[in-house]
Design brief:
Elements lengths: L1 E9 L4 E9 L16 E5 L8 H5 L2 H4 L6 E5 L15 H16 L9 E6 L1 H12 L6 E5 L5 H7 L6 H8 L12 H9 L6 E5 L7 H13 L5 E4 L8 H6 L1 H9 L2
Parallel strand pairs: 3-4, 3-5, 5-6, 6-7, 7-8
Antiparallel strand pairs: 1-2, 2-4
Helix pairs in contact: 4-7, 5-6
């Protein structure tokens, strides 16, 4: 695979941004060789990460060899991939501008059935929010250890983020449905669209966000989600050991017809 680091301008964010990209590398053969586009996975990092985090902590590059799948890893700061209450419009950027920029720079598809989004922790929430709020753009989402219970997180924070910063991102707890951040409400709306995205949720039993995943999976089951898979019964914590072990399942999920 080809490995690229890209610095580019975002009109939505009003600044320069970074992303790391893995691209299938195929040697052209003669005059008949034509530039093709590849299915693309937008892979989102966690709260304390950046665009380099997945490659620094996992064997992703090795595992993705020969899959004919492009992987775009953007930098999302600490904005939870949403339009912040007091900060940048990350939601608009990741749902609309980033896919257009990636397609203009690299041979990646913009077809819904060939565009996937995944992430862990903050990135798990962001992946679900993007897929559920823009099901016409993303055909599948793979979420690892996602944050789900926003009112609790905004009120109490956790060891990695204080409540004041959560309010800067999300606003008040009671505003989440109106702001388009509530995954339960987004799922209800996306269920009624012409083609709801395929969903996979993975979380380990000792993960600090385990109950969040349980709640969301129960909600999706109550909606009779048409294509849902999850794994919630394996031991493990909220860490790279758990997420690394799930990369093969993530890549296979993206390749699923």
């Amino acid at each position: 695979m080809a490995y690229l680091q890209c610095n580019y301008w975002s009109e939505v964010l009003g600044r320069r941004c970074d992303m790391t990209v893995l691209l299938p590398q195929r040697m052209p053969r003669g005059k008949s060789a034509a530039r093709r586009t590849y299915p693309v996975l937008y892979l989102l990092h966690g709260l304390c990460g950046d665009h380099r985090t997945w490659l620094a902590n996992t064997a992703l590059e090795h595992l993705a060899q020969n899959l004919d799948l492009a992987i775009v890893m953007p930098d999302g700061g600490r904005g939870f991939f949403t339009d912040m209450a007091h900060g940048p419009r990350y939601g608009e950027f990741f749902a609309r501008e980033l896919p257009a920029i990636a397609a203009s720079l690299f041979p990646v598809s913009v077809k819904r059935e060939e565009c996937f989004v995944a992430g862990a922790s903050m990135g798990g929430y962001g992946a679900l929010r993007l897929a559920l709020s823009a099901p016409e753009r993303f055909g599948a989402v793979f979420a690892m250890s996602p944050l789900v219970d926003l009112p609790r997180a905004i009120t109490h924070g956790n060891s990695a983020i204080p409540p004041a910063e959560m309010r800067d991102v999300f606003g008040a707890p009671e505003e989440q449905t109106a702001r388009g951040n509530d995954l339960f409400d987004l799922a209800r709306k996306a269920r009624d669209c012409a083609a709801p995205p395929r969903i996979a949720i993975y979380c380990r039993t000792e993960d600090l966000l385990y109950q969040d995943s349980v709640m969301l999976c129960r909600h999706l089951e109550s909606l009779n989600w048409p294509d849902l898979e999850y794994s919630l019964d394996l031991p493990g914590r909220h860490d790279w050991s758990s997420w690394s072990a799930q990369i093969p399942a993530m890549l296979n999920f993206c390749r699923k017809p």
